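User: Here's a chain of 466 residues. Predict its fold as tokens.
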Amino acid sequence: MTSTFRTLTVPLDGKAFPGGLPSFLVRDDVLCWTRREAGLAGFGEIARFSATGPDRFLEADIWWRHLVLEADATDSVELPGTGPVAFGSFAFSKTSTYESRLIVPEVVVGVRDNQAWLTQLTFDDGPLTEETALAALDRWLGSGSAGTLGIESTTAAADSAGDGTLGGGPAKAGGAVVRPLRLAAGATLHTGSLSEEAWKDAVAAGVAKIRSGALEKLVLARDVVATIPSGVHASDVLRELAARYRECWTYGVDGLVGATPEMLIQVEGRTAQARVLAGTLDRRDAHGQDGPPMEYATRVLAGSEKQRHEHEIAIQSLTSQLAPFSEAMNAHDEPFILELPNVWHLASDVKAELAEVEGHVPTCLALINALHPTAAVCGTPTLVAGALIRTLEHLDRGPYAGPVGWLDAAGNGEWGIALRGAVIESPETVRLYAGCGIVDGSQPEAELAETWAKFRPMLESLGISS
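Assistant: Prediction complete.
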């Protein structure tokens, strides 16, 4: 056994799996990050780092840089995501008991720009060849699969919409079932940390704090717990999300699953990009309205002073934190309407050219340390909002609304905010999370309805529909 970290990356024939990267979402323990047909899927684990507390990002950054510093990497593809790669999930809060983690898999399959590749990662000193890489993939996917790579996607075509850039009413609280939903056989849905009425009271308390001048914006989350006797299977959930929400980034790390529409930071070379969302409209609200649905969304979202104010706070939060690391930056003058199957969002894309800081371009995790938490998931001022969240939510968010994604040895990476997601807590139980931005004009009943719109992607992927 040797301590040398070695990797081999070889090209694959992408035509052998026409479904793209989602074709590989066939195991419940898969590590994944995928959008449309592209992304990364990892299998196995050869190394792991975990941390808690306020320095979790910097500690993970130091661990990763030390690991890859003397890595022996053979890479004939040389694209972002080739060579040494780790998947990661980080707690939202510095006070959370959830262990933030980086996981180095044994095998990674990647698809990008109509190219596909396979990477084997190891600390062993045995042979490292294309044959050993294919054999390792075969061990994870089943006999003969790597030989042909003829893995067929099990996802069905689903309605999806997007702009193509950047790469019934609630039931009364108190009962167990919190909304009249069509449940899978034997499934139940229960309130989490707060009942609906208690959560609405928390929203009202947050609005009162905002009106007192203590803060400008607050993001409040809530949770519900689904119990499904037939079992919760991460691979099924991930394939459903990847098919239904093609414009989102579908992620899976250690039981954390979801499909986020929000990119915290994407780094390729010296270019960093982000997608900021704030302002939400349930697409079901357009039913019965005059005119095309998109015109309705534009009128209600872009024409709303409340929604635009919330969005502007989120943009300023990100750009002010990113500016010290950038030598040039641009963002949309006007937000655009991001159309998803369940909701519309006000969205803006931000692009920056990274500057050298003390002779080095900042790493993904260094940027995350500066950016997280943004106003889009916490509020502003950050410290005031964070303290109020802990007081009002009665909830440890764990990895919800924390960074999730991947990074490579060259400094490239993609890190989304873990939204529209859930944590699989047992073979039959999954905890779902959703949150809303609270500003002066927020109404508790409307914010509660918005959480149900945001729960919908995960509920549908579990076979629960409203």
